[in-house]
Every structure is written in structure tokens, then in C-alpha cells.
Specification:
CATH class of the largest domain: Mainly Beta
Strand content: 35-45%
Number of helices: 4
Number of domains: 3
CATH topology of the largest domain: Immunoglobulin-like
Helix content: 10-25%
Order of helices and strands: HEEEEEEEEEEEHEEEEEEEHH
Number of strands: 18
Low-confidence stretches: 5-18, 160-174, 271-289
Structural class: mainly beta
Mean pLDDT: 76
Length: 313
């Protein structure tokens, strides 16, 4: 706080002003699903008083909330004595800074935080301390109100169409608790096909796999989980490129897990295009060398027919 006052008094001239200020969160409420992320913004309202510096500390419960990212994009603060940081051990977000010139407008954006909710329930994010220093030659703290936000997270339920035909197992953690996210590995053959995804999840449930190529839209695939908690997904038509893959488990009573960890995999350019599998009549794509020999044979035969075929008419 002392460093912030010194910085503010050094940068800005004396103007005798007084007002009541506040720090608040926007949005202050919201309803989300477990595993979802949302961004909340921290604003200052100085009630028309020129402000030369601002700082705040926010608290959250790290057992149920993850901080995914902090951002200063669009912030009125440009000179940071403490850039936005967070501690998952303490459940704290902190920042302290000044604008390049005194700020007078209300609803001034200071920073934003992207959060992920890990459990169902009501979760409070609280501004526990803060300061708005007036441009009055003394660096008077005009804070009168510290805001908070209450955000509700609930378990995502599967739709009827998603659970039709699914034999659901009994959740080891109870009917009202979602299953754990699936875990899986990705293996790739030399020719990019097949891609094999093997993993574990709640027994007798179903795993939905989301596969994203580059910046394209994710595509969903489904794989049943056997009674031992294992599943296998085989894909023979993935194109070459960089993929991001994650999964969720649809378990007992339609409860859905949070997202799994994201797996990344790069598929090399295949030696033979996948459509040759059908064109050549193979049950599976031949090796690159075999395919090249076959294609060469076809080409030689075609040239011979064109050149010599008419002689036998």
C-alpha cells in the first residue's frame, strides 16, 4: 500500500477532492455447470473522483474453484506495482497499479479472471480488501464498499436421447455425485490410421470423446465402457494434422463428469489417401510401400493398353 501511495503522489498533481468509491465484480451472479469456465471482471466506481491508483485482494475457495487465467486486457491500469497474480494454496487474487493519467469515469475496468467451477453448489468470490487513491495530494483512500459475487454450479444432466440404450452402472460415489472424468491414451500407427484411443471410466457407462483438428469445430464420438471400466475407440479416417482430444463420462442417472485432461496428438501425412482403401478393395489401408507398388502396376498396365491395345482390335 505504501508503494502504491508513493507512486500515485509522484505521478499526479494535487487536487482536493473527496467521494465514496467501491470495487465490485461483474457479473455478480451466474449459473453454470460443473466443469464450465466463466470470466468475471473487477471494476472501480469512484463516483466522479479522479483516481490515481487502485489495488485489491479477492478471495475464493480453491477446493471448488480453479483460476484458469488472469488478464489485464482493457484495464485502465497501465503501471503495475503488482501485476495480477493468484495463489491456489491461499485462494487469493491480488493486483496493484496506476493509470497513466488520473481516471474519473465510473465503472472502470481494472482486470479480469477466468474461473472454473469444480463442484456443485453456491460459490462466493469476495473482494476482501482494496484501495482507490484519490488525486488530492495525499493519496486518500476513498473506498467505501467492497463487492462480491455468488455463482451457482450444478451437475450437467444427460438428455434422454443421450442415455437411450445405455446400460448405466452404479456410481461408486453415490447417485447424486457425478462420475470421475475418464482417462485415456492415444496411439497412432505409421500411416495415421487407425488411431486407437484406450482408457478407463466408470464401469458400464459411456464415454463421449471430443476431437478437434486445428482451430476447427470439435467432433463428438461415442464409446461404451465395459463392466471392467475399460473402453476402446478406433478411428480409421482421421486426416493428417494436429488434434486436441478430451472426453467426459455419462454415468449413473444421467450424471456427467467434468472434462478430462486434454490430450494432444499430431498425425503425420499418410503415404496413401484414405479413399484408396475403398478404391482398391482392401479391408484396411495397405502399407505405403505396398500401395506404391500396386499403383505403379496399374499405371504401367494403363500405358501399355493405350499404346498397344489398338493393335489387337
Amino acid at each position: 500500500m505504501r508503494a502504491l501511495v508513493v507512486l500515485a503522489l509522484t505521478l499526479f498533481p494535487s487536487v482536493a477532492l473527496a467521494a465514496q468509491g467501491s470495487l465490485f465484480l461483474a457479473p455478480a451472479t451466474g449459473s453454470f455447470f460443473v466443469g464450465d469456465t466463466t470470466t468475471i471482471e473487477v471494476y472501480a466506481n469512484a463516483d466522479g473522483t479522479p483516481i490515481t491508483a487502485a489495488e485489491a485482494e479477492l478471495s475464493f475457495n480453491p477446493a471448488v474453484v480453479d483460476v484458469v487465467a488472469l488478464s489485464t486486457a482493457g484495464s485502465a491500469l497501465t503501471l503495475w506495482s503488482e501485476e495480477p497474480t493468484f495463489s491456489s494454496d491461499e485462494g487469493k487474487i491480488r493486483f496493484s497499479g496506476s493509470p497513466d493519467r488520473s481516471v474519473t469515469q465510473n465503472n472502470t475496468l481494472l482486470m479480469s479472471a477466468t474461473l472454473r467451477f469444480k463442484a456443485a453448489g453456491e460459490h462466493r468470490i469476495q473482494v476482501t480488501s482494496g484501495a482507490l487513491l484519490a488525486n488530492d495530494g495525499k493519496g486518500s483512500n476513498i473506498i467505501a464498499t467492497l463487492g462480491s459475487g455468488v455463482y451457482t454450479a450444478r451437475v450437467r444432466e444427460a438428455t434422454q436421447s443421450e442415455t437411450d440404450g445405455l446400460v448405466l452402472g452404479v456410481s461408486a460415489t453415490g447417485d447424486d455425485v457425478p462420475p470421475a472424468p475418464p482417462t485415456f491414451t492415444v496411439s497412432v500407427s505409421d500411416d495415421s490410421a487407425p488411431v486407437i484411443i484406450r482408457g478407463t471410466a466408470e464401469p458400464n457407462a459411456r464415454v463421449e470423446l471430443w476431437v478437434q483438428l486445428g482451430e476447427g469445430e470439435p467432433v463428438r464420438y461415442s464409446a461404451p465402457v465395459d463392466r471392467d471400466g475399460s473402453f476402446v475407440f478406433l478411428a480409421e479416417s482421421f486426416a493428417a494434422g494436429a488434434y486436441r482430444i478430451y472426453a467426459v463420462t455419462y454415468g449413473q442417472g444421467g450424471l456427467v463428469s467434468a472434462n478430462s485432461a486434454v490430450q494432444t496428438v499430431t498425425l503425420p501425412q499418410s503415404g496413401v489417401a484414405p479413399y484408396l482403401t475403398a478404391a482398391l478393395g482392401f479391408a484396411q489401408l495397405p502399407s505405403t510401400a505396398t500401395a506404391l507398388v500396386l499403383i505403379s502396376g496399374f499405371m504401367v498396365g494403363y500405358v501399355a493398353f493405350v499404346r498397344y491395345g489398338r493393335r489387337f482390335e
